[in-house]
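Worked example 2:
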Amino acid sequence: MGRHRVGELARALLSLLRSELVPGTGRGTPSGDGSADGARARRVRSTLERLGPFYIKVGQILSTRPDIVSQATADELRGLHDTVAARPFGEFEPVLRAGLGRGWRGMFADFDTEHPIGSASLAQVYAATLVDGRPVAVKVQRPGIAPLIAEDMALLRRAARLLAVTAPEFTELVDVRAMLDMLFEAMGAELDFTREAAEADRARAEVQDFKHLDVPEVYEATPTVMVQSLAPGCSIGDARPEEFTTAERTGIGRDLMAFMFRGYFSTKVFHADPHPGNVFVQPGGKASLLDWGMVGRIDHRTSLGILRVLLNVALNDALGVTRAWVDMGRATERADVAAFRNDMELLVPTLTAVTLDRLNFGATFTSVLGSSTRHGIRTNPAIAVLGKSFANLEGSIRYLAPELSVVGTFQDQLQDIMIDIADETVSEARRADVTLELLTNGTQTLQYVHTALRQLIGGEFVFRVEQASRLDRRTRGRRTLAAVAAGAFLWSGQKRFARLLARERARAAPGPSAP
């Protein structure tokens, strides 16, 4: 990495750390356009835009984290867009030649080199026509951008390690390293178009279940060049709602939410950047989901945690939201869970059945983040990418179908989500995992089950209740796991269980009386 680049990044990061990430410097302070906070926020945005594509993504993540930056800066960063002035085609032609071969022009009947249809910091996109007449979009990576981003990632990793040492109280609440790792993983396909093509192919197969959605078909992909079908229409942000029927507008909105809910809760893989520029629509047609370069992945536990949060919002249950949020993260030693619950009791009732034209759900999501951090609750690092995805989704749908309710649509999809979770729970792999856990740690548990069964049949069983407060969290967890494992093990082997039950009954039965 060049010395100039290191110096530029160091100055920008130090400025951000001093003004935003250090407690007591104005986090959460409201500001107007002319205030010092507003001016500082604009400087932060300008710096991130100047630093390039990776830092634009970081800024978009920070826009959903008012627990990390000031509210003024979070508001300013919501306006970050990864668009730059188009560069001459001559800079990209060597990339095309290296990716598709010296005869790349022979693939196309027409290729508009003068007017790119998209220009971002990572790539430039051109309209073209294949020799068979199909219209396509050709995405070409900017020369030298991949190693630059790799260097920036390495520098941020070092900065995160330094932050952990210099600001331990902050990093106790915000796991910056884990949050960055989530972002790095989500951005992986943006640096290798073969990975993006694979994600697009997967998504294209999944949207077949949705009447109003489509994903462009990829015809050719190399690490630096991708050729895909040209999405019809325009950005959902530029669409004129009055040109669509009500059924079209609401159908597109509901399908977008349902598809994303499936990613969050069923497949655990989701579009991490569904902003308006990545959703194209046209009257009488399907909505096209573009740009599968930024894809999020979450684990089973985190997915269930988010599901519990949304379910308890739908139930207007502030206590349930509190428990689900804390379970996803971790209550630190200085946590005030009661105060966090009080905040949720004020917030949750305002969310139920509110439509998108009256609710900024992404902003509401970030207010939960701010409250949890303020009250000493460490947030799950996956929330960074999830929050960005959800906020972008909600913003996109609001342009076309503001009358939709996020909570209402979630309730409509809940049955399908629960069926998917049930299928996963009783899958062969999940049963095998439970059984292995049982075989590894559960020999004593099986003995307890066997003894309890014998006592139950013989009429000697005594049920003893211990106060939950007397059991530490780890002990309760182990006992819960053991009970679930034993139940799954016995359920999956019903014939064996029946034989065991018959044998124990026979032992308990009185023998024949002596003559």
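Residues 231 and 288 are 6 Å apart (CA to CA). Confidence is low (pLDDT under 50) at residues 22-33, 463-471, 481-486, 488-497.
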